[in-house]
Amino acid sequence: MIYHRLISPCDIFAGIAEGILLVVMLLLSSAVLADATSEPSIEVFVDSASVVAGEATSIYVIDRIDVLKKTLSSGLPRNPEKAKQVALARFQTMDATLSQQLENAATGLTKAQQYGIDRVPAIVFDGKTLVYGVTDLSVALHLYGQSQRDILQ
Fold this sequence. Notes:
Blueprint: H1 9-37, E1 42-46, E2 58-61, H2 64-73, H3 80-92, H4 96-115, E3 122-125, E4 129-132, H5 137-152
Parallel strand pairs: 1-2
Antiparallel strand pairs: 1-3, 3-4
């Protein structure tokens, strides 16, 4: 004997809603797992005298603008008009590498101000956790891990 069941639009909608809910739950759980196991974003803020040990997402040498100003103004003539011309000529011959370094310094200064960084070296993890006085990323990662465990407890 064959039984036929009539399927109403409500049954179809309920089935679709269950399927969508399952997909959303899977996506959310995979995002949480990925977030928990992914490497943190690491932004390092240093001056040109610092040496960073390890791999970071971004390294900002924030005193590079001051170094460039000293370089551009070194040995300028006393005459203000001639000094302006020489400085402009130096600035125009700046290569792409130096231009990238200036952009890096400007970005670093902006981000440092946003994070409230008041000294270097400083390392920011995931835009939230700040570690001062360390340039060895393995040490900084250890300190970051400790802070995350302390938060969870």
